[in-house]
Amino acid sequence: MNTKTVFDRLQSIDDEVQKLHNTIFALKTTDIQAYADKYEELSISAALRSERIACQLRNLVYTTTDTGKKDYLKQAAAVQGIKISFSNSVLSITMPGLLPKRKLRTNTAFLHEPLNLALQTYVTEHSIPLYKRCVVCFSQIYDQSLSLQRICDYDNLEFKQILDTIASYVLVDDTGLFCDSYHTTELGNYDHTVIFVMEPEIFPGWLKDRKESIKTISEIS
């Protein structure tokens, strides 16, 4: 890649950063109580723009340095806090908090590429069953120190592509014939998402234990 092309790409990224800066300034000056809808619109815009910036910089790294895509994505997964574990026949995947569904077509590589590599690495290094029948539980965990008004409806969150990525490694299929889904909202110390995959027979007991150990929204309603 020649110098001019690199410069042009950097200029494009710089322009995006300036727009992000302007959006963050608008967020800082918006009354979240009086203008909740406007605040939501601005915050989603800032988050999506940040994703685009991250993806643009990734591509620049791939094409202008000796760092390979695989090596970079391992670091990206660690920075994003993506963690995978398997215990008592339950697969657990911890990820950043999910964003609302995109109203416009945008690059979703920011989260899915590191998740894909993390899963690929984990199933290579560990013995994980291929679930023929399973329950997939999506647990949206919100920072309990912030307003509960920002909690989203489940059907407004970006679950499908996450499930597609997971299914390609540990599920026979993610159709209703083989996979049941469960969604729950919980409170914690920071925003994140945890996906649990387990056999249907395990789910009732697991859910009972989970509800006893985690603070749910109903406890403060």
TrEMBL record:
Matching InterPro entries: DUF6100 (IPR046082)
Protein name: DUF6100 family protein
Species in which this protein is naturally found: Blautia acetigignens
